[in-house]
Amino acid sequence: MGGRDGAEWRRARELFGSARRITALTGAGVSTASGIPDFRGPNGVWTKNPAAQRLSDIDSYVADPQVRVQAWRNRAEHPAWQAEPNAAHRAFVDLDRSGRLGALLTQNIDELHQRAGLAPDRVLELHGTMFRTVCLDCGATGPMSAALERVAAGEPDPPCRSCGGILKSATVSFGQSLDADVLRSAQRAALDCDLFVAAGTSLTVHPAAAFAELAAKAGADLIICNAEPTPYDHVAAAVLREPLVEVLPELVAVPVVDSPDPLRTWGDPSTWS
Ligand code: ZN
Known about the structure:
Strand order of the largest sheet: 3-2-1-7-8-9
Bound molecules: zinc ion
Distance between the termini: 41 Å
Helix content: 25-40%
Largest sheet: 6 strands, parallel
Order of helices and strands: HEHHHHEHEEEHEHEHEEH
Radius of gyration: 20 Å
Oligomer: single chain
CATH class of the largest domain: Alpha Beta
CATH topology of the largest domain: Rossmann fold
CATH superfamily of the largest domain: TPP-binding domain
Number of helices: 10
Structural class: alpha/beta
């Protein structure tokens, strides 16, 4: 790679300096420095304990009360409740303040981007949020804190208060569909940028991963910042492996080069002729 003086860094800096609308996709790697383990990295939750993935499977969750009891225990003990945003989260806030962040797509459910200061409407939570609950039967939603209080008070698998149905965190489990509105907005953001930055994601979970490819196909430059190789590294203009808490603030701080040309992207209807 050649470190900060290498070709990858040079290209990444150039692209960040000239980009006018940046869409970002973040994954678990953005939050590991905040103490939240990822899933597929060397110390990932599923790498160390493959059986844990079953807790994220919707069919097991619905069919097996023991899976739900374990899932509630895991939610209660989740490190996200104590986690603070890190320099990588704050870099996206700075990018937004510079007026160049089109949208931030995230696979994370920990709300650390919002807690760092990004307005909720700038964040597209592809996999939902762990801060809310949803009833799988009637669709009623509520705060996770209220459900966890019931767990702490002795209900190991608290049912929906409206209908008695199965409650779950408002996150997308394996076997569940992503929110159609969120998907549409994410697709639009991928098409409507001149630079797409994938940070801290292994780009192996679809459809999230496909947005990087979609953006590249639509003509945006792709920068991948991830410790491990991804299936899209060969499509990327630059691949950076250094820690995100260093990489993202450095890239966001690159001085912006003004361009006289209008920005034309596939997501802009005026270009559809
Ligand atoms: Zn219900």
